[in-house]
Specification:
Layout (H helix, E strand, L loop, with lengths): L2 H12 L14 H8 L3 H15 L25 H10 L15 H7 L1 H5 L4 H24 L2 H9 L8 H18 L9 H4 L1 H9 L5 H14 L18 E5 L11 H13 L5 E6 L5 H12 L6 E4 H10 L4 H5 L2 E2 L5 E2 L7 E8 H13 L5 H22 L9 H5 L9 E6 L1 H17 L5 H9 L6 H10 L9 H18 L10 E3 L6 H7 L29 H8 L13 E6 L8 H14 L4 E7 L1 H9 L8 E3 L4 E3 L5 H9 L2 E2 L2
Parallel strand pairs: 1-2, 2-3, 6-7, 7-8, 9-10, 9-13
Antiparallel strand pairs: 3-10, 4-5, 11-12
Helix pairs in contact: 1-12, 3-7, 7-8, 9-12, 12-13, 13-14, 14-26, 17-18, 17-20, 18-23, 20-23, 27-28
Amino acid sequence: MKEPLKQLYNYYIIDRTHRSLRFACNIDFSAEFSAQKLSPEERMCRRFERVTALEIPRILPEEKIVLTRSVSNVGDIFTKEEWDEIRAAHYIHESGYVSNLSPDYEGMIRDGFEARYEDATPYQRRMMDAITNLCDRYSAEAKNMGREDIVRVFDRIPRKGATNFREALQFFRVLHFSLWLEGDYHNTVGRFDQYIYPYYKKDRDAGVYTKEEAFDLLCDFFLSFNKDSDMYFGQQQGDNGQSMVLGGIDENGNDCYNELSELCLKASGELCLIDPKINLRVNKNTPLEIFEEGSRLTKLGLGFPQYSNDDVVIPGLEKMGYSHADAANYVVAACWEFIIPGVGDDIANVGALNLPLMVDRAIRSHAAASSDFDAFFETVKSEIVSECDRIAEKIHDVWFVPSPFMDLLRKDRKYRNFGVHGCGVSSASDALAAVKKYVFDEKTLTVDHLIESMDKNFKNDPALLHQLRYETPKMGCEGGELAAEMSVKLLGAFSDALKGRTNCLGGIWRAGTGTAMFYLWHAAELGATADGRLKGEPLGTNFSPVLFAKTEGPVTVIDHFSAADMERTLNGGPLTLEFASGIFKEDDSIRKLAMLIKYFIERRGHQLQLNAVNPEKMKDAQKDPDRYRQLVVRIWGWSAYFVELDKPFQDHVIARQEYTL
């Protein structure tokens, strides 16, 4: 890391000096706006204007990409009583503010504010004026510092479209900054290497930058994602949605991986920060060298890149009704959900289905009366349908706080689909395998005995617990083909239960294999389960084996978790594999891991996420967090600093299965 970048890194990441310069906005917008009976649009616009006016421009001598938040909080625009009234009439998703969208950065960076001004709403014009004024104040501060390079950038953007690499990067920062300031969250980055590449290539071809100089500027830009990331989080610190997609193919099947894609991977490796979170789009023809480059990031323990398989995702989205051009342009939402930039308005995480609970209910209600396993599985399917009914029935009259600035970056709302996570796939499939094997095929276990043992957390029959836990077919384990077969049936039933439904916005429902935080929440709803899981034990993260499965290697795991037709459960949710960090001591480890990823893609797995973990280091970090402030781990669809996580999340990462190559 060169000295100028190192100074920025120390200021923003190590010492975090900028955080001490923040100040609180002590304006109670909700009470003020309520008393004035302002419309929701006026409230959003007025808060944006006033908070933007409070921002204080600060520029470091070495800094090239600027805009850093100085106002530490903005407050809500509705009172509690107003929110209660809104919730009484509408379904409110999460906080009620728009999230998990991929805006059309490309168009605005190309056109500039002035080109959009005439067609904009009055609220949008006021917001563009407010952020332009802030940029002007940054320009004035730069001029006072003798930073003519920054002045030249703001002489053009955001009023006009960008004409070069640096202007494009700074314009993105302006737009991203504005979305956060509006109150939108999980604002994704989209196909960054596609819409920024023309500016990069123009400057490289003209000799404005060497590759090394362009890399230095890109690192400065990457650092900007981390200046304010502590202010933008969901369930835990780091859950902020700053997800960047690289590579992939275009609608004509051409490979889009380019020199900027390569530099983005290298910049992540240089900085070793949790943002932006890198996603690589790949396919069966992707050269092994690209998988090797991604594996070098995995070696660093960043928890990314996450891989998405174009060979599965694009046709799968087309089958769901997305046009070919839009499907080929897909990106990843905050975690893993597949969305479309610029025209997508999907709520990709509207609900979650507890699959082990569906199996448990079927065991208790109908297993004893079922003539065979097929009859029993019909009950499982009925439970899944009933639960999908319940999820669908509660989601109606969806309402979001207006977001005028976000709407500037959306050309249309072509897709308004809902996504439902399918949680605990492996636990449910393993339980089905146990019931089929022992209750229906071998008839060595009665339903009553199984239920009694589950109710007593297997304290009445430790031998049965051992049998179910360690001797029964498990997904990802040698001899676990029966469990893998059950996953095919289970995911098919889940997809069928949502197929043909129309949501309240006129869109479809999409089944997925992600868990988000539900691997802890859904586990808390369960007692002991028929796979040998004890009460209180968490489920596996995303699409992965249960925590106590005695897996022997990642190849079998890949085989089992690519058995189903993943085009049908395409809301997203990666197979997650944890590798012992010590494997990377071997000279050929990068190539071996790259070949394993390529094998997964060739097996038509849909999404893959790899971690390099060191449980002993994490245990030390729990005891002495100050020594490990920069220790990064992957949680579910995002990476975080380990010591900033709540202990249940820390413990789950430590407990996950480690693989070797």
